[in-house]
Amino acid sequence: MKNIYMPFKSKILKISKHTETDYTFRMEFKGEVKPGQFFEVSIPKFGESPISVSEIGENYVDFTIRRVGTVTDVIHSFFVGGTLFLRGPYGNGFDVNHYKNKEIIVAAGGTGLAPVKGIVDYFAKNPSECKGFNLMAGFKSPEDILFKDNFKTWEKSISVTLTVDGADASYTGTVGLITKYIDGIPVDNMDEVQVIVVGPPMMLKFTVAGFIKKGVKEKNIWVSYERKMCCGVGKCGHCRIDDTYICLEGPVFNYLDAVHLVD
Amino acid sequence: MEGVIFMGFKLKIEKFDEQLEILRQEYKVYAPVIIKGKGTFADTNTVRYKEIESIKEVEFDLKSNYSPKEIILPITQTLFYFTEDDCEEPKCDEKKILIFLRSCDIHAMIRLDEIYLKNGNEDYYYKVLRDKVKYVLMGCSESFENCFCASMGSNSTENYDMYTRIQDDEVFVECKSEELMNYFNIDKTNDLKVEPEFVQSNEVKVTIPENLDQRVFKSKMWDEYSSRCIACGRCNFVCGTCSCFTMQDVFYKENRNVGERRRVWASCHIDGYSDMAGGHGFRKDKKDRMRFKIMHKVYDFKKRAGYHMCIGCGRCDDICPEYISFSNCVNKLNKAMDEVE
Q1: Which residue of B has its CA nearest to A48?
Q2: In chain B, which residue's Cα lies nearest the Cα of A201?
Q3: Among A83, A133, A203, B102, which is most exposed with the fewest C-beta within 10 angstroms?
Q4: What is the mean pLDDT of chain B?
Q5: Is the pLDDT assigned to residue A36 strictly greater than 80?
Q6: Is the pLDDT at B271 greater than 80, yes or no?
Q7: Among B155, B154, B165, which residue's Cα sits nearest to residue B200?
Q8: Secondary-structure breakdown of chain A: helix, strand, coil percentages, each rounded to the nearest 5
Q9: Separation between Cα atoms, residue B259 and residue A74, nearest integer Å
Q10: B244:A238 CB<8 A
Q11: CA A154 to CA B268: how far, in whole Å?
Q12: 3-state secondary structure of A228
């Protein structure tokens, strides 16, 4: 009988700093993983946190971790060569095949970019496999921008709108909430365009509303949810909304299903 | 699959205890017992599950304040110990488990099985304990206060291994388990008809509206719980079907390199239940927590499992320090649906 709570050791291969509080940990891992899936990442004696994968490689997965709690504080004191404990992957994740040969818009707020980054990476690498890709990424301030190096790569093959909520006058980039730029995103086929929205609850709500107003079909909108999860396997109850377990049926939902989820 | 028989017999209490003693070499026997002086108020008692040595200890006349769930879903359960960088599972007691419990609580176990064995992958720790369990049914000659088992359909059951009742100085037994029967040296030609008592109706009746759905979220019926509920979580902890837990890691004071990961019962009424790292949480208002719990018990769970989660034991009503009644709340759903329709 398999013990679903027993974690395995994974070596830290690389740590990259994005901001003062956000780092990406590249962890040794071999196995099937989809963008949008998550692992329970833990440090024995401190605890476990559900963290979604921000990049998937042949022998690794990346976790972009913000220092916000007990566990993530301690994780940030680890170094390359050290080990963390993992169990997973959990959740449904995004199905890359679903988006192939379609127009795609990804709107991500803050760390919400991490779970959807695998999709962006895939189509930025294989732009011919879709009919157009627009990435909209919003951060609080220029200091909060994550994956700066990736943006440089992405800009070469897909359209990118990188915006910050606010910045001082010296900032030369785009300023304003994502919702401000929804109208400006060109769409060829409004009936078919696929939109993925990931971010904090308020951003999610207004961004989805913005795309619906623009004319995007509700059935073509996809969201990813974040909830407290202690087990990741449908037992602990914390992530449940109505009759849906975010860890089992989610975290990725079609908007038509997500709209019925009331906390 | 173990052989099923139906054998009725009676034994003097002393004789039964002698057999129980033999059985206890292979089984841990749990039953509701009176714990003197441990009630909520001064000089009051509580009825809780404990390991017993004699059937005389079993409290047949009162409802237990807590459910038997803690036997297979311990309040605090160590999942593994950490040494420097290894994880090791705790050893599990070899003995099998015999639980004295009522029909409603047997139904509650079915709900726990649903979550721990069927909702996603099997839970290893639950499964190990659950596979050891046999049930000794306790009958209910009449309904206790706040019970509404008949409304929830949990007032009777066939799902037990043995039934016992004490009458004067004798124990009347119906044994369905061949294995348990081996512990009783009984002349099998002397079959006695022993039938469990099940209540057919309760004073408290509950009607779940057939048209119940999410529209009820908008009803004003929830408002009163914002101020009435004090978010103590007692209702969840006494409930036989509440099964949420939170993970906890600890290290030992003597050696900080060594520690353990545990899971601990959690309550959806208590602050922090849905809080994520960074502080964002859901259902800040207590009325939303009440709605979340009620709807799980009589609506959401059924959508996944096909039957209601609530078993109608009424322990939540017995324990609530604010006298909030679960059954009243469920009955209010009827009017609330009219209100929102």
Answers
A1: B247
A2: B280
A3: A83
A4: 94
A5: yes
A6: yes
A7: B155
A8: 25, 35, 40
A9: 16
A10: yes
A11: 43
A12: coil
Size of interface A-B (CB pairs under 8 A): 129
Q: How many CB atoms lie within 10 A of CB B191?
A: 12
Residue B158: predicted pLDDT = 96
Q: List CB contacts (< 8 A) between B117 and chain A.
A: none
What is the model's pTM?
0.94
Q: What is the ipTM of this complex?
A: 0.93
Task: Examine the pLDDT at A221 and tell me if it is beyond 60.
Answer: yes
CA distance A17 to chain B (A): 19
pLDDT one-digit tens code per residue, B212-234 = 999 999 999 999 999 999 999 99
Residue B322 is encoded by which pair of tokens? Answer: 């604010």
- Which of A 35-54 lie inside 8 A of B, CB atoms? 42-49
Residue A201, preceding peptide bond in cis (omega within 30° of 0): no
Average pLDDT over residues A88-109: 97
Query: Residue B310 corresponds to which tokens in the numbers above?
Result: 């609530």
Whether A174 and A186 have beta carbons less than 8 Å apart is answered as: no
Question: Which domains does chain A show, CATH number per domain?
Answer: 8-90 (2.40.30.10), 96-224 (3.40.50.80)
pLDDT digits (tens, 9 = 90+) for A100-110: 999 999 999 99
Q: pLDDT per residue over B94-131, tens digit each? A: 999 999 999 999 999 999 999 999 999 999 999 999 99
d(Cα B34, Cα B65) in Å, to the nearest integer?
Answer: 10
pLDDT tens readout for residues B272-298: 999 998 888 999 999 999 999 999 999
Contact: A2, B243; criterion CB under 8 Å: no
Strand-pairing partners, residue B117, are none
Q: Does A34 touch chain B (CB under 8 A)?
A: no
Token digits of residue B53: 């040595």
- Whole-number Å distance between alpha carbons of B95 and B333: 45
What tokens were used for B186?
A: 């009984």
Mark yes or no for CB contact B115/A234 under 8 Å. Answer: yes
Mutation target for A interface from B72, B87, B292: give the one with most A CBs within 10 A: B87
The full DSSP string for B291-323 is: HHHHHIIIIIHHHHHSS-S-----HHHHH-TT-
Rounded CA separation A58/A73 (Å): 28
